[in-house]
């Protein structure tokens, strides 16, 4: 039922994969539900003693990454779209995450103190 | 630049004599490249916030109370998690509205279903309005947050936390504002001549931008608000 | 070999309706004309930045000289660096991106022609904002990497740094807009059969560079936004008293700054990768390796930034990691050098001026690359960084690499640009004086640096063992100046009077040489179908271009209209948008002047003007 | 060390053949050389440098030789055949990917080892020196001795010195090329650098700021003396004491400056006070300092000198009075002078024992000191210290000094006072 018309203008483009795998309305609702649940869990654990656990930050980062990935894959339909877009997005994203990680190390945010 | 790239618009991508080597639309390629670039912008802003976290010489602080040694005045931890959780939820729901708007435009020429709810799902105007309103609500939350912080004694000039916090969230807010204006422009077209499946690409591109601004907030909410 | 022997026509082809006059240049959206605008503007700034360098070298020719004051000197070296990086080498590369990319991939234009014009006008505006103040003695004086907190208002209370921050921010917009444009162009507008691994290496390197731009410039944008907010709105990003960490600026700057080095050098690598095969009459040796090493250099370029900061005390782990990643970059770079030499090996080398510049790049970049390895060793770098040794190093990279490569490109593509040849005799004079001058200027700097001379000093004392090296460097500048003067004479004369070039004067293999010189506004009368990496060597001419009978009428080339090719309309809107945007940002200067209402008035007025222009732009048809 | 110098010799020969010959022949003396082996830090760096230069030269020679051979051997011949259209050679390309990688291992391993070695914690017995950068001068503190001084650094031979590097304003970089690499002074951070001057006797050398820090970056130098341990203790013991007004020199330490000012001819030596107070401590003997070391900065045009006759009239006691009532005390400390407690400018307690003034910019003699006091802003661009001479034009404020200005005679008195602070 969901038909991707956005490819109609692309003259020499085979519309085959877009036809088959495009998400349904129901997918969008399910995704919204999952996103909401994760957000609720995130806020909930913020108010529990788990907040002082060593696993708190990793847990939050994992949930946040999951939300990030779900939105990108389903709402930005990167899961279904041309693989070029995946490259255009994940390449820069990886460099960005690498830079963030590098900076955190350099400013001692990961507390890796050896020597000096 | 995004707007300028988008401004290379209507007659270009859709004109049939312009074949493209990948079959992809120019503007959509450009917007994905733009989003990749924005990743680096927000990573710079987020990194700066995180680097400066805990380094302010005076309060108020995000997660701790602070007593001004000069006046003895106590400043409470300033981040308001319940309010921000609500605004985060609003922004997430706006993304849902946005995909529904896109789906509605893509399916404009299908026979109209009979069920009331299914008919609502076909209304691009409804979902575009919904997205814009949810986006505006998010901005309202942010305006509330900013003004209450100022009342509590935190401005962009107060300390490192203030400078990096307001700049980061302010840049995000500016992106949401651009997104809302973009949605209003699409609504203007919808009212003037109706968005058709051939316009789906225009909505698609706006949606990509909108969702990206949403995922940035997902990162900000966790990294800035929830992690101490 | 099909086109190699084609006799040059006696006259230049004309299309009849190619518009001339100032207005046609202000409104042009033709990538070739925009390329020419970039070229001419960048060459103008080359003279400007060169004069700054000449004054610097005159001041340093001997010890304790008093030609300029300390403050003037500090402005001169800041502006020399800023000018050469942002207003000379980058836009010279942009000139080639604009002119060449569509031609090399068989396209009629870039993906967003009006955005392309906008990029140029924004670049020009940013260039004016950052360079003009030197005429009033108010030029930026914080060094080209503008380390905080020296650049904060507490230590630089004048307007000098304001112009730098605003100018760089504006130039960043130009680079980003252009990069999105070229990424889209290369991905989307290749001719049928022009798969990625058939693309000319220049286009490949340009493709990598555009990604470096879109990933590196946002970082400097953020860093500059912080500085701008600090200076105009009183934020604390670099305020020492508020607990700021000056290393924040340094890290953000070099996260941008190191990829920027590759933004400067890779286009030149691309150009010599075109020149060397043509004049050796051999395909590029190891094309895939050259391409992959270019990508690898670009990607690794994001993991080495802190090697500019070995003296700041990052700790042994960071120093070691960045030392090793920096050394890794030497591998793909070395591979490129050896592949270029192997391209010439076994060939029939023709020593045109273009080829000589390309060979000189291989020879001289090697020196810069080796001194780069010397910096990569963190403890050794502690004796080298911020000394003249590092000045020698990056001039070997940027002059011995980027400028020589671009010069090879200018001599190579001038015929395609203008339809006429640059004079080869003057070219040889240019080559020898410039290359000798370059070595004479920069090689002694290795020595003065290793013998303890720090960089960025406006004067030095007698008896420190530096006099002779400095004198040699200063004499070298005279040679460079003579060389560039010869070049400009040649450039201007040949534009009007040079020998007629014909389609393919060099017997080159790539697509741009299949069409007339100068290139008609529609580029390709029909879009070619490509089946080879070297179509003009491997394919029949008839497969690539229409016959002369089909494309000419009455002794002239047919117009786009006659051929039924839709062309984008010229428009002034990109220029207007660029002016509004620049004026809007410059309104901030009145905040510094203490006149908030005027600042707001200017910014709101220009902001509305910009919005109105963009709406007009958005709603007017492209073609 | 012998092994490396043999390596260096052979490589030096190769390099000379590559166009250095002319340069090396002309270059006679390099007093600020970075190749010296005077500290373990310097030796470690030079060890790496030898490897870098060796491999670098080898690669350079190889690449350029192949390049030159190629362009000569394969130059186009008339009617030459179309060359064989080779597209590459996988074996070759893999080879020249792996070979550089292997060479890099030989550089990377000692690099990493040296990084960790030189950045380890300094031994606890080290002499602690706190270095504080200011625009544009250096403050040196010896916390173990309770000494604060400026612009001249005394280091005992054979003892590890650990510098704690800080800055009061913008970034600077602490560099003594003869002794080893540089380290930056970063606002809101403390950096450390340590080494042991163990292979050099008493020597005077240069240090300088290596990070651009504004107007007078070029003029932010400092002077370094390596001295025998006993001499260091003598120097330190005296520097710790409050200024004793009117102290006579024990040794011929008076800077009888043996050089000529490039611009103004001979530099006048000031009359030494003929008092007989307690002896001063060790100061590096001026006559053992090589000519390169003495600043030859020209005097600014348009700044009137104070005649020698007026300077000769300077009286230290009057000068103390004038000094103690002038603006000087707002910025300078002289321990022993209770009026002089300022901390913005250099500590002047034993100013007379220093050989240079204005961060190594001028020799510390009466003439230069007088002109410095009169109009320091003409002597050194951008300095914070106000112009003090009566009716002098302050080049930064663009106005003449009137109230509070010092006449030439008063300047001469202050000069006499400051120079008496041995």
Structural account:
- The complex is a heterotetramer of chains A (116), B (228), C (623) and D (422).
- Chain A is an all-alpha fold and 116 residues long.
- Chain A contains 4 helices and no strands.
- Chain B has one domain: Cytochrome c oxidase, subunit III, four-helix bundle (Four Helix Bundle (Hemerythrin (Met), subunit A), Up-down Bundle), CATH 1.20.120.80.
- Chain B is an all-alpha fold.
- Chain B has 8 helices and 2 strands.
- Chain C has 623 residues and is mainly α.
- Helix content of chain C is 65%, strand content 1%.
- Chain C contains 21 helices and 2 strands.
- Helix content of chain D is 34%, strand content 16%.
- In chain D, the strands form 5 sheets. A 5-stranded mixed β-sheet of chain D has the order 3-2-1-5-8. A 5-stranded mixed β-sheet of chain D has the order 4-10-9-6-7, covered by helices on one side. A two-stranded antiparallel ribbon of chain D has the order 11-12.
- The two termini of chain D are 42 Å apart.
- Chains in contact: A-B, A-C, A-D, B-C, C-D.
- Chains C and D meet through helix 3, helix 7, helix 8, helix 9 and helix 10 of C and helix 1, helix 2, helix 3 and strand 9 of D.
Query: So how many helices of chain A?
Result: 4
Helix content of chain A: 55-70%
CATH architecture of chain B: Up-down Bundle
Domain module count of chain A: 2
**Alpha carbon gyration radius of chain B:** 21 Å
Stretches of chain B where pLDDT is under 50 for at least 5 consecutive residues are 1-17
What spatial form of chain A do the alpha-carbon principal axes imply? Answer: flat
Query: What helical percentage do the residues of chain B reach?
Result: over 70%
Q: Specify the oligomeric state.
A: heterotetramer
What profile does the largest beta sheet of chain B have? 2 strands, antiparallel
Overall pLDDT metric of chain B: 90
CATH topology of chain B: Four Helix Bundle (Hemerythrin (Met), subunit A)
SS content category of chain A: mainly alpha
Number of domains of chain B: 1
H and E string of chain A = HHHH
In total, the number of strands of chain A is: 0
- CATH homologous superfamily name of chain B? Cytochrome c oxidase, subunit III, four-helix bundle
Measured distance between first and last alpha carbons of chain B:
35 Å
Mean pLDDT of chain A: 80
Report strand order across the widest sheet of chain B.
1-2
């Amino acid at each position: 039922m969901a038909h991707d018309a956005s490819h109609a203008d692309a003259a020499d483009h085979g519309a085959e994969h877009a036809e088959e795998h495009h998400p349904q309305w129901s997918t969008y609702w399910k995704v919204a539900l999952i996103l909401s649940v994760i957000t609720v869990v995130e806020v909930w654990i913020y108010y529990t003693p788990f907040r002082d656990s060593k696993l708190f930050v990793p847990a939050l980062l994992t949930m946040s990454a999951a939300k990030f990935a779900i939105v990108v894959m389903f709402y930005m339909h990167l899961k279904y779209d041309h693989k070029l877009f995946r490259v255009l997005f994940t390449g820069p994203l990886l460099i960005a995450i690498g830079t963030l990680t590098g900076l955190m190390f350099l400013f001692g945010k990961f507390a890796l103190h050896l020597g000096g | 630049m995004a707007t300028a790239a988008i401004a290379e618009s209507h007659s270009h991508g859709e004109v049939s004599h312009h074949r493209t080597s990948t079959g992809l639309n120019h503007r959509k390629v450009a917007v994905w490249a733009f989003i990749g670039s924005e990743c680096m912008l927000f990573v710079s802003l987020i990194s700066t916030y995180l680097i400066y976290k805990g380094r302010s010489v005076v309060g108020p602080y995000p997660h701790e109370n602070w007593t001004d040694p000069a006046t003895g005045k106590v400043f409470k931890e300033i981040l308001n998690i319940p309010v921000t959780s609500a605004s985060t939820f609003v922004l997430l729901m706006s993304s849902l509205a946005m995909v529904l708007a896109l789906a509605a435009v893509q399916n404009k020429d299908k026979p109209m279903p009979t069920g009331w709810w299914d008919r609502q799902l076909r209304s691009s105007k409804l979902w575009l309005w919904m997205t814009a309103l949810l986006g505006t609500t998010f901005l309202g939350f942010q305006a509330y947050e900013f003004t209450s912080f100022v009342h509590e004694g935190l401005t962009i000039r107060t300390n490192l936390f203030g400078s990096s916090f307001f700049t980061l969230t302010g840049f995000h807010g500016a992106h949401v504002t651009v997104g809302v204006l973009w949605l209003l422009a699409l609504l203007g077209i919808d009212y003037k001549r109706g968005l058709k499946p051939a316009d789906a690409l225009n909505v698609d591109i706006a949606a990509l931008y909108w969702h990206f601004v949403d995922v940035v907030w997902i990162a900000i909410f966790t990294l800035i608000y929830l992690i101490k | 070999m099909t086109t190699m022997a084609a006799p040059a026509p006696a006259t230049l082809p004309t299309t009849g309706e190619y518009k001339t006059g100032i207005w046609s240049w202000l409104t042009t959206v033709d990538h070739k004309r925009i390329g020419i605008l970039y070229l001419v503007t960048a060459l103008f700034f080359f003279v400007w930045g060169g004069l700054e360098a000449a004054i610097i070298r005159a001041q340093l020719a001997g010890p304790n000289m008093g030609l300029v004051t300390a403050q003037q000197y500090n402005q001169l070296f800041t502006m020399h660096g800023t000018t050469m990086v942002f207003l000379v080498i980058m836009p010279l590369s942009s000139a080639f991106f604009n002119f060449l990319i569509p031609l090399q991939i068989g396209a009629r234009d870039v993906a967003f022609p009006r955005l392309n014009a906008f990029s140029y006008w924004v670049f020009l505006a940013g260039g004016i904002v950052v360079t003009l103040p030197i005429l009033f003695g108010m030029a930026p004086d914080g060094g080209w990497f503008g380390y905080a907190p020296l650049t904060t208002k507490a230590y630089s209370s004048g307007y000098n740094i304001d112009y730098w921050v605003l100018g760089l921010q504006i130039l960043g917009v130009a680079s980003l807009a252009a990069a999105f444009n070229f990424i889209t162009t290369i991905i989307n507008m290749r001719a049928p059969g022009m798969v990625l691994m058939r693309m000319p290496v220049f286009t490949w390197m340009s493709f990598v560079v555009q990604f470096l731009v879109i990933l590196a410039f946002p970082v400097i944008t953020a860093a500059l936004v912080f500085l701008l907010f600090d200076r105009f709105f009183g934020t604390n990003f670099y305020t020492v008293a508020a607990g700021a960490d000056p290393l924040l600026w340094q890290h953000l700057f070099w996260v941008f700054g190191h990829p920027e080095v590759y933004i400067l050098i890779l286009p030149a690598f691309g150009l010599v990768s075109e020149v060397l095969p043509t004049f050796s009459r051999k395909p590029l040796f190891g094309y895939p390796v050259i391409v992959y090493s270019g990508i690898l250099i670009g990607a690794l370029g994001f993991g080495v930034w802190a090697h500019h900061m070995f003296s700041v005390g990052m700790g042994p782990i960071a120093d070691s990691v960045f030392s090793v990643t920096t050394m890794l970059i030497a591998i793909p770079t070395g591979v490129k050098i050896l592949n270029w030499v192997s391209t010439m090996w076994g060939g029939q080398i023709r020593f045109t001026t273009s080829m000589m510049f390309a060979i000189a790049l291989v020879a001289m970049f090697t020196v810069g690359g080796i001194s780069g390895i010397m910096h990569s060793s963190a403890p050794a770098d502690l004796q080298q960084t911020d000394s003249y040794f590092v000045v020698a190093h990056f001039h070997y990279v940027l002059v011995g690499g980027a400028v020589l490569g671009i010069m090879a490109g200018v001599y190579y593509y001038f015929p395609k640009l203008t339809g006429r040849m640059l004079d080869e005799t003057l070219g040889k004079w240019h080559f020898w004086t410039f290359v000798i001058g370059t070595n004479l200027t920069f090689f002694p700097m290795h020595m003065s640096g290793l013998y303890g001379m720090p960089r960025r000093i406006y004067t030095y004392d007698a008896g420190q063992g530096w006099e002779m090296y400095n004198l040699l460097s200063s004499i070298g500048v005279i040679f460079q100046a003579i060389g560039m003067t010869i070049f400009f004479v040649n450039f201007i004369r040949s534009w009007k009077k040079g020998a007629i070039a014909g389609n393919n004067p060099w017997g080159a293999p790539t697509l741009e040489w299949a069409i007339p010189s100068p290139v008609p506004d529609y580029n390709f009368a029909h879009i070619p179908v490509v089946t080879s990496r070297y179509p003009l060597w491997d394919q029949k001419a008839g497969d690539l271009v229409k016959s002369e009978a089909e494309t000419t009428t009455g002794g002239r080339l047919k117009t786009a209209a006659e051929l039924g090719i839709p062309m984008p309309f010229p428009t002034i809107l990109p220029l207007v948008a660029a002016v509004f945007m620049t004026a809007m940002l410059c309104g901030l200067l009145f905040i510094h002047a203490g006149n908030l209402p005027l600042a707001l008035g200017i910014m709101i007025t220009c902001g509305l003007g910009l919005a109105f222009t963009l709406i007009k732009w958005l709603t007017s048809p492209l073609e | 060390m012998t092994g490396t110098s043999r390596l260096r010799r052979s490589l030096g020969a190769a390099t000379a053949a590559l166009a250095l010959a002319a340069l090396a022949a002309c270059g006679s003396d390099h007093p600020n050389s970075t190749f010296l082996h005077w500290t373990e830090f310097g030796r470690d760096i030079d060890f790496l440098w030898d490897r870098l230069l060796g491999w670098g030269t080898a690669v350079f020679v190889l690449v350029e030789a192949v390049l030159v051979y190629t362009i000569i051997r394969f130059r186009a011949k008339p009617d030459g055949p179309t060359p064989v259209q080779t597209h590459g050679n996988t074996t070759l390309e893999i080879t020249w990917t792996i070979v550089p990688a292997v060479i890099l291992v030989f550089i990377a391993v000692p690099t990493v080892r040296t990084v960790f070695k030189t950045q380890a914690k300094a031994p606890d017995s080290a002499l602690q020196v706190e270095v504080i950068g200011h625009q544009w001068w250096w403050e040196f503190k010896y916390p173990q001795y309770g000494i604060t001084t400026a612009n001249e650094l005394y280091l005992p031979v054979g003892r590890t010195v650990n510098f704690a590097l800080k800055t009061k304003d913008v970034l600077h970089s602490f560099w003594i090329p003869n002794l080893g690499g540089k380290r930056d002074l970063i606002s809101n951070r403390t950096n450390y650098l340590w080494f042991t001057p163990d292979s050099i006797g008493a020597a005077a050398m240069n240090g300088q700021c290596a990070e651009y820090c504004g107007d007078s970056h070029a003029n932010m130098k400092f002077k370094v003396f390596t001295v025998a341990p006993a001499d260091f203790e003598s120097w330190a013991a005296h520097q710790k004491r409050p200024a004793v007004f009117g102290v006579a020199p024990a040794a011929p330490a008076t800077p009888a400056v043996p050089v000529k000012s490039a611009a103004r001819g001979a530099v006048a030596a000031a009359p030494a006070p003929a008092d007989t107070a307690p002896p001063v401590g060790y100061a590096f003997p001026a006559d053992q300092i090589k000519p390169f070391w003495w600043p030859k900065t020209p005097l600014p045009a348009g700044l009137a000198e104070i005649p020698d006759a007026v300077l000769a009239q300077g009286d230290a006691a009057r000068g103390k009075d004038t000094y103690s009532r002038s603006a000087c005390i707002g910025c300078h400390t002289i321990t022993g002078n209770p009026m002089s407690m300022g901390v913005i400018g250099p500590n002047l307690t034993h100013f007379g024992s220093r050989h240079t003034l204005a961060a190594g910019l001028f020799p510390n003699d009466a003439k230069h000191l007088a002109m410095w006091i009169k109009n320091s802003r003409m002597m050194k661009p951008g300095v914070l210290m106000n112009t003090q001479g009566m009716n002098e034009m302050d080049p930064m404020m663009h106005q003449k000094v009137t109230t509070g200005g010092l006449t030439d005679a008063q300047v001469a008195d202050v000069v006499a006072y400051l120079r008496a602070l041995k």
